[in-house]
Amino acid sequence: MSYRLKSATSHNTLIALLFSLFIIAAFSSCSELSPEQTEQVADVLNDSLTSSTETWGVDMEIIEDGQLKVQLLGSYATTEATKYVNETRIKGPVTIHVFDSTGAITTRVHSNRAVYKAETAIFELYGNVDVYTTNNRHLWSEYLEWHQGENRLKTNRFVIIETPTDSLAGTGFEGTTDLSQYVIKEPQGRVVVD
What is the mean pLDDT of residues 113-126? Predict the structure, then answer.
């Protein structure tokens, strides 16, 4: 799986590079380093290997096996990549399109902002999260996690879900991205069964 940011205006963190060059220059003019000093220099250099980018007019695509799976649109994003974290924070409005194997959009998601965690392929969606599917299902919440690799939506917060046959509200939700299968942990509402 890979992802890319298109039409990006970006800049990398220069301070970390300058600091690293300063450390290297300072120690290269000295005599041999002790093992402890060598380890300290290595730690400083590893900690300074931080990459940071900014992007305006975000158009992020996630491609698996040469096929477009997800497209995310947003107004502004920052990406931070270190040895501990690799995440992109997107300001909205955020729109996500989920595609099936034929290239058709199956789910649309809208939110105020989002965080994409690259190592775990998890999107965290914040503020007025609306999920619409092609099978006439709609979910609303203030916070939602989308585990992209598992094709699962999760939240421990209040949700409202509407389907062609029912309307439910409750706290705690887990289900598929197309909302065809789901569980509300503490439900309240009405169900119409044909």
Answer: 92
**Residue carrying structure tokens 């107004």:** 75
Are residues 116 and 60 in contact, defined by beta-carbon separation less than 8 angstroms?
yes
Those residues whose C-beta lies under 8 Å from the C-beta of residue 80, and which sit 6 or more positions away, are 50, 51, 52, 86, 87
Distance CA 137, CA 180 (A): 8
Cα 67 to the center of its chain, rounded Å: 19
The answer to whether residues 111 and 123 touch, using CB atoms and an 8 Å cutoff, is no
For range 72-86, the mean pLDDT: 87
Of 39, 37, 17, nearest to 27 (Cα)?
37
Q: Looking up tokens 């939700």, which residue turns up?
A: 173
Residue 26 to residue 9: CA distance in whole angstroms? 34
Nearest to 108, CA basis, from 138, 152, 128, 82: 138
88, 89, 90, 94: CA torsion to nearest 10? 90
Comparing 21 with 124, which gets the higher pLDDT? 124
pLDDT in tens, 168-189: 999 999 999 999 999 999 988 6
Place of tokens 């402890």: 36
